[in-house]
Specification:
The complex is a heterotrimer of chains A (288), B (287) and C (244). Chain A contains eleven helices and four strands. Chain A is mostly helical and 288 residues long. Chain A has one domain. Chain A starts with a helix and ends in an 11-residue tail after the last helix. Chain B is mostly helical and 287 residues long. Chain B contains eleven helices and two strands. In chain B, strands 1-2 form a two-stranded antiparallel ribbon. In chain B, strand 1 and strand 2 form a beta hairpin. In chain B, helix 2 runs parallel beside helix 4, helix 5 crosses helix 6 and helix 6 packs across helix 8. Chain B is globular. In chain C, the strands form two sheets. Chain C has a six-stranded mixed sheet, sandwiched between helices. Classes of the chains: A mainly alpha (288), B mainly alpha (287), C alpha/beta (244). Chains in contact: A-B, A-C.
């Protein structure tokens, strides 16, 4: 049972991550391979605040939001000058730069040693060290983010995003400043990823930089594309599938030490197969 | 300031490695116009092939190098034949090809980690390395080979592209693939060979890196990205530009860490990339 | 009254003058044809005037507005200008209806998020789509439409903006006669509504039928201008089209 709760929390975290990336890649057509950076910034903000100050989890969430708001605004601004595959390269670049900061600003982040002892949240007397309560809390956040994403994508704003995806030059002719639209959705998406990171830090209680490298961004991309681009339910489905995958591997009998690498091999193959045979993913609306 | 000669040597060696990687990358980009990120893992596979054939199976090193280079070339050829070509037939966009290449990169990196373990391994035993003194700096035998290799391969490639029929056809495809098809060039065949040659060079670069600094399954991304940065700085698709960009990158990185600690090397490299993408996306050499 | 004035407009691409020291004036409410052989600069001219391509030299004035020369694409709408493209640029993986609704969205972020498409938007979209016989295909994805249907949809999208100045880049190219009739009647209706239309076309019959005034371009320069009947008879115009 404990184990199922553990899986449930991971599922919720990756659902939020998948949703956030889907908004940017699936709806707006911006191939961002950098979301692990925002995930990491959220995680580290929470870890540092919970271990080095007396402030609580929700304060760390708010601080994380403010920090990511500023950073994603700047990164989004620079990236907006790039098109298509150059956008992807530039985003990988930012992921690497943020990772460098996490590794090298050792006064703040303890570098490769990581930060341990991150505690679970506590509000209104409820101690979320109990994993079940933690699961409920994060599922509530998942629901909130799902509803926000639904609202955004079903509104006229959502249609503009899709138009940007289809032909960003043409939609401009009709009076839309696409820079603003792209920035807004990028920032919203980054904040969501950061909050997922905060929950991750609190959940695993020990974090270190390598969890937020480009390979993690690629993993989040697989979640989004597999479930289906431009389908919110698709991201949930993608997260479910990919969180269950390692468990299925273990059940089949793969030795634990190569399970991690085996996972990587499978993600890579899934990505290739998706591009070749089903670019719209399982239930997606958009073929990349 | 006596560390300057050493830094210059380091810059030249780094630049040469990046140049070799960007040579293959630019060759492929020129013909296909997409970013083949799987190029990075071909580099790694080249290095690990030597580990397998020379270190584990005990083959003669020269034979090992030849086999490894050929394996890398064949791998690149297969990637084109079985993944990229089918995608291009479906009129896939550059983004799709890039994502597919990411998938290939990820999968192959996983396979190498499984077969060879994730641990760092070196191809050379340190006692074997002959070291030369040059002004106040030291350069190893491997590093001299790296520099010479770049010159030879670079010249070879330039001769190939400008003095042979094959080279003419490649340049025709670079200019306009549709027109090349119309005038009767078998573009798919030529592009397949381009992949072979570019990937062979990549594999060879991996061998050199393995002897110079060592092997790790995760080194592919960093090397690839440096090669891409070099290519973009110099002007994507341009062989000369890539070499220029590679040395610029090598020097900026190594002189940059005079002032800042070494861990920031990657950040410096990417900072340079972002600056170029913003202000001079066509690179130093405008095509 | 002049609605559009161009003075010494110049644009070079890699050493070739696409538009070369071009000057012309367009009267409000007229249907102006821009013709010329391929490569004469017609589409580049429209791209310059819609901010898609930056101007090298010269001055553009629209409705006596001072700063039109350095216009950005997202600003032409507020000057009452809209356009279609030579190679149709629709939103392929969106439905026919969505292609119309999307340009009825509020132009600011808050509005686009919180102001829903009201009844009047839906009624208006219906009217426009019915005009081009596409209402019954409103839920179809654009990528599944025929070539002619896509051209009509692009014109419908331009109509939806209620602009005052319309640039149509070869709207009649490659579509069936029944569809041509629809496009021609739309242009005539716009004229009755006192809109200004700039039409790039090759079909001389349609040019004669629809245009009040013609500009003939050749190699980026103005070769001739005047009323269609007069201009189309001139030797140099005929020669430009047929070659030496």
């Amino acid at each position: 049972m404990e184990y199922l709760i553990h899986l449930g929390i991971l599922f919720a975290i990756y659902s939020i991550l998948g949703l956030s990336l889907n908004l940017v890649v699936g709806f707006t057509g911006l191939l961002s391979i950098s979301h692990a950076a925002f995930y990491g910034i959220g995680a580290y903000t929470t870890a540092i605040i919970l271990t080095k100050t007396g402030l609580g989890f929700f304060t760390s969430l708010i601080l994380g939001i403010i920090i990511v708001l500023i950073i994603s605004f700047l990164i989004g601004l620079v990236l907006s000058k790039f098109k298509g595959d150059y956008y992807a390269l530039g985003s990988i670049g930012f992921n690497v730069i943020v990772l460098s900061v996490l590794l090298n600003w050792q006064d703040l982040t303890a570098g490769p040693l990581g930060i341990a002892g991150v505690s679970r949240p506590e509000i209104l007397g409820i101690d979320f060290s109990n994993k079940f309560y933690f699961l409920i809390l994060i599922l509530i956040f998942l629901l909130i983010f799902y509803l926000i994403s639904l609202f955004i994508t079903k509104s006229p704003f959502g249609k503009i995003l899709k138009a940007i995806r289809e032909d960003d030059g043409a939609i401009q002719i009709f009076g839309y400043n696409i820079l603003y639209f792209k920035l807004v959705i990028f920032i919203v998406s980054a904040v969501m990823a950061a909050i997922a990171g905060s929950f991750f830090a609190s959940f695993v209680t020990f974090i270190e930089p390598s969890s937020f490298a480009v390979s993690e961004s690629i993993f989040i991309l697989v979640v989004s594309i597999l479930g289906g681009l431009a389908s919110l339910r698709g991201s949930i489905l993608g997260a479910l599938f990919l969180v269950l995958l390692p468990e299925i591997l273990r059940l089949i009998g793969f030795p634990v030490d190569i399970a991690g690498q085996m996972r990587q091999v499978i993600y890579g193959i899934i990505l290739i197969l998706l591009m070749l045979y089903r670019p719209q993913g399982l239930i997606g609306e958009y073929k990349i | 300031m006596d560390i300057i000669p050493q830094i210059i040597i380091n810059s030249l060696v780094a630049g040469a490695i990046y140049a070799l990687i960007s040579l293959g990358f630019n060759l492929i980009y020129g013909a296909t116009k997409f970013f083949n990120l799987a190029h990075g893992i071909v580099v790694v596979i080249g290095g690990y092939s030597i580990l397998c054939f020379v270190k584990f199976l005990g083959l003669n090193i020269y034979l090992g190098v030849v086999i490894s280079v050929i394996i890398s070339g064949i791998l690149g050829y297969c990637l084109d034949r079985f993944v990229y070509l089918p995608l291009k037939r479906k009129k896939a966009s550059n983004m799709v090809l890039l994502v597919a290449s990411l998938g290939i990169f990820t999968a192959l990196q996983g396979i190498i980690s499984i077969i060879f373990s994730s641990q760092f391994q070196s191809l050379s035993e340190n006692s074997e390395q002959v070291v030369f003194s040059f002004f106040n700096g030291f350069i190893t035998e491997t590093q001299i080979i790296i520099l010479i290799s770049l010159v030879l391969i670079g010249l070879g490639l330039i001769l190939l592209l400008h003095k042979t029929q094959f080279g003419r056809e490649v340049r025709a495809i670079n200019d306009d693939e549709e027109v090349a098809k119309i005038i009767g060039i078998h573009t798919n065949k030529i592009i397949g060979r381009v992949f072979f040659i570019g990937s062979a060079i990549a594999g060879y670069a991996g061998i050199l890196v393995g002897y110079d600094t060592g092997l790790e399954p995760t080194m592919g991304l960093s090397l690839l990205l440096k090669g891409v940065i070099a290519s973009i700085i110099g002007g994507v698709g341009s062989i000369y530009g890539g070499i220029l960009g590679a040395f610029l990158l090598g020097f900026v990185e190594n002189f940059g860490i005079l002032k800042i600690s070494g861990g920031w090397k990657d950040a410096i490299a990417f900072g340079l990339l972002i600056i170029f993408l913003i202000f001079r996306p066509r690179g130093i050499i405008n095509k | 009254m002049k609605v559009l004035e161009i003075k010494k407009l110049t644009k070079r691409f890699d050493g070739v003058f696409a538009v070369n020291d071009l000057s012309l004036e367009i009267e409000k409410g007229s249907v102006v044809g821009i013709i010329g052989p391929n490569g004469s600069g017609k589409t580049t001219l429209v791209n310059l005037l819609s901010g898609i391509v930056p101007i090298d030299k010269g001055k553009v004035t629209v409705n006596n507005s001072k700063n039109f020369t350095k216009i950005k694409p997202c600003q032409i709408y507020s000057h009452g200008i809209t356009r279609t493209f030579q190679h149709v640029r629709l939103f392929e993986q969106m439905s026919v209806l969505d292609n119309i609704l999307v340009v009825l969205t509020e132009r600011n972020i808050f509005g686009s998020l919180f102001v829903k498409y009201g009844d009047h938007c839906h009624k208006y979209s219906k009217k426009i789509l019915e005009r081009v016989n596409l209402w019954d295909k409103k839920d179809k994805l654009v990528c599944n439409l025929s070539y002619g249907q896509r051209k009509l949809l692009e014109i419908a999208r331009a109509l939806a903006t209620k602009s005052k100045i319309y640039f149509f880049d070869e709207p009649f190219a490659g579509i069936f006669p029944e569809m041509r009739k629809i496009v021609a009647s739309i242009i005539k209706e716009l004229k009755l509504e006192k809109k200004t239309i700039i039409l790039i076309e090759h079909d001389m019959v349609l040019i004669r039928e629809l245009c009040d005034y013609l500009f003939v371009l050749d190699e980026g320069k103005l070769l001739a201008h005047g009323k269609p009947d007069v201009v189309l008879k001139r030797k140099n115009v005929v020669k430009a089209y047929l070659g030496e």
